[in-house]
Design brief:
It is built from eleven helices and 15 strands. It is an alpha/beta fold. The longest helix has 20 residues.
């Protein structure tokens, strides 16, 4: 009897010590790079993960999806006991896909006590924030920041998605391998690093694959309303396929205006087109036949996807945001869990120490994700996984084999 009581006391003390390892040390929102913030630890028994992305504005579909996917993963992880005995807290700040607002949001999250960052969502804000994260030696894992520059500021920066060059190359390869077209037109946003980066590598790879780019048409954020001239030039050049390395807001207008003109080529995009079916006031039937590279399809029957989709819906989230961004964020949080457990991360560790531990551990784990099967990472921050493509048929994504 005494032995049982003794063992109970020892077990209770072990639990106390496991959860009593975190102390409060908030940062300074006015100066995100203030060194006083770089060594913050979280509250008692807690690991704090922040995120930044557009929850309002034209790109809100991406940020909201990331929020939902991350929240779901955090909920599941906490229900299963947390990370190394610590509860996970998640908080996301809105940047309206604006770099300056993203930097401000980074400061707010540091003031909250953020120790790792699952973000930011879009490329230009991610580039801006990555500089501060690198200065703080904070571990950053962006679900969807695709530009090369997102990872160039330091060695604690990683991503779940493919980079822009990889998307451009994979798109050209897929079009050539499937024989989808030989004459291609391109409409891209010359004021956006995401769009420009994909366009550049697509053009290079298209030439290597004997695909002829017959017209390359640009627009900027300030002129993203009327695409009649671009579509007219592409049609006159004889394009069979129009490559759209852009986001859903301008893409929806392009599809509407092409339909009005009676121009019906094959439209092909990348992950930025994911969510096109849920654009407000857009006739989704106009997206029929559109193809895009995306690592996630909600109606796939593999075990990981079915589990994720069922849990997502059971949590009450709208299907509007059940896209690759939600899946990328879900994989991002589980990747953080796997790497943190590999590294022995706990809540009492400051951000710099966590960054040092995580940048090594993430290269030593394999995550069975919903966005590409078995995923591993290189020290340069890039993921290794298989690309997937879908075609919109009867208002649903259908995987293209």
């Amino acid at each position: 009897m005494r032995i049982k009581k003794f063992l109970a006391v020892v077990l209770a003390l072990a639990v106390v010590f496991a959860f009593a390892s975190c102390t409060k040390n908030p940062g300074n929102a006015e100066n995100p790079s203030d060194e006083s913030n770089s060594n913050s630890a979280s509250e008692e028994g807690v690991i704090k993960i922040g995120s930044i992305g557009p929850l309002t504005g034209d790109n809100a579909v991406y940020g909201t999806a990331v929020k939902y996917g991350a929240e779901l993963a955090v909920k599941e992880i906490n229900e299963a006991g947390g990370i190394n005995g610590c509860k996970v807290e998640f908080r996301m700040e809105d940047d309206v896909s604006d770099a300056e607002k993203a930097v401000n949001a980074y400061g707010v999250l540091k003031d909250w006590g953020m120790q790792m960052l699952a973000g930011t969502v879009t490329s230009k804000p991610c580039q801006a924030v990555s500089t501060y994260a690198a200065e703080d030696n904070m571990f950053l894992l962006t679900p969807s920041g695709t530009s090369v520059e997102c990872l160039q500021a330091g060695d604690t920066l990683f991503r779940v998605c493919f980079s822009d060059p990889a998307q451009g190359t994979k798109s050209a390869d897929f079009i050539a391998e499937k024989g989808l077209a030989t004459k291609i037109g391109i409409i891209y946003n010359s004021s956006d690093v995401y769009s420009t980066g994909i366009k550049d590598t697509f053009v290079e790879e298209a030439a290597a694959k004997n695909l002829e780019v017959v017209a390359t048409e640009a627009f900027t954020n300030d002129s993203a309303t009327d695409f009649t001239a671009q579509l007219t030039n592409i049609r006159s050049a004889g394009a069979e396929l129009v490559f759209l390395p852009i986001y859903t807001a301008p893409a929806s207008l392009i599809l509407q205006q092409a339909n009005t003109m009676g121009f019906a080529p094959l439209f092909f995009g990348c992950d930025g087109l994911d969510g096109i079916l849920s654009v407000e006031n857009f006739d989704a039937s106009l997206a029929e036949g559109v193809m895009l590279l995306t690592p996630f399809v909600a109606n796939s029957t593999d075990e990981a996807t079915v589990k994720f989709v069922n849990a997502y819906r059971a949590n009450g989230y709208e299907d509007t945001y059940l896209n690759q961004f939600a899946a990328d964020a879900y994989d991002a949080i589980y990747t953080i869990k796997a790497a943190a457990e590999k590294a022995g991360v706990t809540g009492d560790m400051d951000t710099a120490a966590i960054g040092d531990a995580m940048k090594t551990a993430i290269t030593e784990v394999t995550v069975s994700g919903v966005t590409g099967g078995s995923i591993t990472w290189n020290a340069d921050g890039e993921p290794n996984k298989e690309p997937r493509a879908v075609k919109i048929i009867n208002g649903e994504y259908q995987m293209v084999e």
